[in-house]
């Protein structure tokens, strides 16, 4: 087995037994990036020299007490890393390179555990998109079919994991941006409960919706990473002080008696037949393991995507205000006055999708429209959360497809942003409710494109969905499939 293809758990065992070294493991990922990323465009900044130096220091110490010590990973390009160019894949930061003077809490926690960041992964500009097509560095291609997208906004992270360029990667999930690319690329991805992981040092798109989490090669690896990155952070007032469970201990393989809800609203006209069949087949696997599956209703599901695309742009319009070309980032010459300067900086620096969301959000928050749009959307958000609260009074977890179809072709939605937004139809409800959701591979199409199964839990219910996901993964062979590049 090539070292870069290992899971975190297997690599840790090999490192501890001195069968491999951290330097060899990091070098194997570097070699893989050099061999295949010219095709994929998943890695947009390489930190190879510093990564190898860290690995050598770890080898000299010889201690591998943490399961993440010596493990190479990719960092999505909206995470700040001290001394490493960080652009959120936007020209507003790329044209005059922004190098942060500090690191995100997540990167700090991983570094303290001995994990090694080997580079930055591609993303839609400021995470606005579902395909990485809005990145100023160009689109990331799917390792399973390079004519198709890897998903977004964490497409670079998902492609990097699926192509074995790293052992795991960091992503962010605001409206499905971990779960959708994980499904498209045949890896696992977890959106944690809002407040379980710290957002400090991660560039915000929509502060009340953003969560940060991992993309991995197995559910066990997700549990390992979550144990390190979760927990209260005094630098982020939205993080919970709840104790962090030992997620790995939840992976018992036993789901006998677990009550699983299958929401009828997630099986809609127009859904790809192969997607529906893969989920129906997954239901049978879970039932064979002793789970009790029953149909439930989440009646406000149809309002989730319209609700999201009111609330998200409203928060975007506020968060993007800091990118004005004064304190950092893109600058211009020859402006007539300050207003013209702002106009030129933001016209040049932002792409179409960012501009679109700023304008929609500013409109919805303006006098005369605030009550009709923003306030109404917040009311709907409460109703969506109540749907889940009511459902979880009767079931332990809820399952559904991740997306209505497999990865779409590059350029499929060019000029039609609304059609792109509708790709999120199964991914926005969880965001409104602030609940955790897992994507795990569950099949493939006749064209050999991966498909994903979504598992949702109540707030702070990561243990339940990780246990169910791990049990399903062990009973099937979907997660072990590798793309041919």
Could you state the order of secondary-structure elements as H and E?
HHEHEHHEEEHEHEEHEHEHHHHEHHEEH
Distance between the termini: 16 Å
Evaluate the radius of gyration. Answer: 21 Å
CA-based shape? globular
> Any idea of the CATH class?
Alpha Beta
Query: What is the CATH superfamily label?
Result: Amidase signature (AS) domain
Structural class: alpha/beta
- How much helix, percentage-wise, in residues? 25-40%
User: What would you say the CATH architecture is?
Assistant: Alpha-Beta Complex
Count of beta strands: 13
Which residues sit in consecutive blocks of at least 5 with pLDDT less than 50?
none
Overall average residue pLDDT: 97
Can you put this structure into words, describing what you see?
The protein contains 16 helices and 13 strands. By secondary structure, the chain is of the alpha/beta class. The chain has a single domain (3-299, 386-480), classed as Amidase signature (AS) enzymes (Alpha-Beta Complex). The protein has an eleven-stranded mixed sheet, sandwiched between helices. Strands 4-5 form a two-stranded antiparallel ribbon. A hairpin with a 2-residue loop joins strand 4 and strand 5 (145-149). Helix 10 (304-319) crosses helix 13. The model has no long low-confidence stretch (mean pLDDT 97).
């Amino acid at each position: 087995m090539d070292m870069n293809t290992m899971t975190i758990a297997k690599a840790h065992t090999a490192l501890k037994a001195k069968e491999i070294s951290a330097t060899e493991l990091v070098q194997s990922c570097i070699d893989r990036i050099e061999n295949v990323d010219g095709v994929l465009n998943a890695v947009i900044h390489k930190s190879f020299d510093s990564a190898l130096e860290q690995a050598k220091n770890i080898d000299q110490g010889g201690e591998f007490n943490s399961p993440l010590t010596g493990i190479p990973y990719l960092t999505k390009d909206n995470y700040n890393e001290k001394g490493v160019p960080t652009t959120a894949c936007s020209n507003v930061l790329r044209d005059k390179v922004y190098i942060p003077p500090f690191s995100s809490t997540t990167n700090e926690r991983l570094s303290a555990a001995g994990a090694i960041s080997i580079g930055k992964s591609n993303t839609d500009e400021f995470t606005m998109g579902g395909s990485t097509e809005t990145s100023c560095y160009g689109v990331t291609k799917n390792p399973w079919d390079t004519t198709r997208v890897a998903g977004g906004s964490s497409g670079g992270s998902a492609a990097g994991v699926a192509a074995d360029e790293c052992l795991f990667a960091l992503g962010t999930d605001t409206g499905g941006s971990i779960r959708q690319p994980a499904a498209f690329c045949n890896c696992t991805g977890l959106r944690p409960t809002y407040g379980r992981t710290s957002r400090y040092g991660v560039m915000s798109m929509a502060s009340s919706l953003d969560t940060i989490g991992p993309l991995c090669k197995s559910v066990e690896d997700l549990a390992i990473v979550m144990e390190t990155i979760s927990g209260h952070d005094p630098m982020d007032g939205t993080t919970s002080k709840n104790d962090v469970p030992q997620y790995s201990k939840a992976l018992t393989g036993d789901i006998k008696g677990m009550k699983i809800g299958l929401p009828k609203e997630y099986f809609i006209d127009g859904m790809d037949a192969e997607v529906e069949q893969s989920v129906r087949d997954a239901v049978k696997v879970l039932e064979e393991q002793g789970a009790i599956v029953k149909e439930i209703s989440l009646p406000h599901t149809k309002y989730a995507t319209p609700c999201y695309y009111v609330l998200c742009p409203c928060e975007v319009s506020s968060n993007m205000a800091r990118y004005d070309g004064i304190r950092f980032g893109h600058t211009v010459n020859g402006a007539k006055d300050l207003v013209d300067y702002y106009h030129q900086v933001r016209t040049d620096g932002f792409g179409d999708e960012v501009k679109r969301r700023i304008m929609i959000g500013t409109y919805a928050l303006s006098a005369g429209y605030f009550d009709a749009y923003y306030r109404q959307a917040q009311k709907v958000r409460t109703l969506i959360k109540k749907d889940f609260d009511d459902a979880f009074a009767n079931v332990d977890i809820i399952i559904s497809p991740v997306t209505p179809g497999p990865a779409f072709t590059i350029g499929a939605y060019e000029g039609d942003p609304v059609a792109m937004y509708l790709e999120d139809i199964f991914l926005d409800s969880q965001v409104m409710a602030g609940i955790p959701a897992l994507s795990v591979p569950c099949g493939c199409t006749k064209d050999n494109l991966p498909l994903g199964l979504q598992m949702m839990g109540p707030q702070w219910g990561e243990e339940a969905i990780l246990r169910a996901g791990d049990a399903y993964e062990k009973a099937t062979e979907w997660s072990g499939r590798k793309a041919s590049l």
